[in-house]
């Protein structure tokens, strides 16, 4: 557990958390900056009002990040489903190519054992047709593999975006907690009756 003393809007606060000290200072710095920005935009606001507006802004950002995170997770699931379907298609194409190659080998054996010119002509036509079909299948398999690689790349990017969103949500949750602490302290400072034990 780390304990640090930070300054927010000129007042010192003790923060306690499992995060590193640098992170806690960063959170306090963000809260301080947001409060100062709001106070600079409207000089007539009290510190308490500025703290409430800061909390509202932070919660708004957090909720938007959560929505974005949910959308990214849904997109990620869709990409995973597409990738799985493409993998099945690639496997089917590989099986089909293997069957065609076996059939081609069988025809070549028949050709070697046959001395008939007519059979040779039929074989050559059949072999040509099969070669063309095999080439088309290879092109299709190549295209599916390219799509699979593209989906893998997009999947990796989505995972990175989801992880970034998670960190942003954690950061916003910490800011919200700090603002709530700040608000309570400000209320205590403004209303001495709350400090009576």
Automatic annotation (TrEMBL):
It comes from the Bacteria. Pfam families: ZapA (PF05164). Residues 62-161 form a coiled coil. The keyword Coiled coil applies. It is found in: Cytoplasm. InterPro entries: Bac_CellDiv_Activator, Cell_div_ZapA-like, Cell_div_ZapA-like_sf. GO terms for biological process: cell division. Keywords: Cell cycle, Cell division, Coiled coil, Cytoplasm, Septation. Signal peptide: none annotated. Its main location: cytoplasm. Homodimer. Interacts with FtsZ. Activator of cell division through the inhibition of FtsZ GTPase activity, therefore promoting FtsZ assembly into bundles of protofilaments necessary for the formation of the division Z ring. It is recruited early at mid-cell but it is not essential for cell division. This is Cell division protein ZapA.
């Amino acid at each position: 557990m780390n304990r640090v003393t930070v300054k927010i809007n000129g007042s010192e606060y003790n923060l306690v958390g499992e995060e590193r000290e640098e992170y806690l200072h960063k959170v306090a710095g963000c809260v301080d900056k947001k409060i100062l920005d709001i106070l600079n935009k409207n000089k007539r606001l009290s510190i308490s009002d500025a703290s409430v507006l800061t909390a509202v802004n932070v919660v708004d950002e957090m909720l938007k990040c959560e929505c974005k995170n949910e959308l990214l997770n849904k997109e990620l699931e869709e990409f995973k489903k597409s990738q799985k379907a493409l993998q099945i298609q690639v496997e089917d194409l590989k099986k089909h190519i293997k069957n065609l190659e076996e059939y081609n080998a069988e025809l070549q054996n028949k050709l070697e054992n046959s001395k008939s010119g007519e059979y040779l002509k039929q074989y050559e036509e059949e072999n040509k047709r099969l070669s063309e079909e095999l080439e088309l299948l290879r092109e299709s398999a190549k295209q599916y593999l390219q799509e699979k690689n593209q989906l893998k790349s997009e999947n990796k990017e989505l995972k990175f975006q989801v992880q970034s969103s998670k960190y942003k949500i954690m950061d916003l949750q910490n800011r919200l907690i700090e603002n709530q602490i700040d608000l309570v302290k400000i209320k205590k400072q403004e209303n001495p009756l709350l400090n009576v034990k």
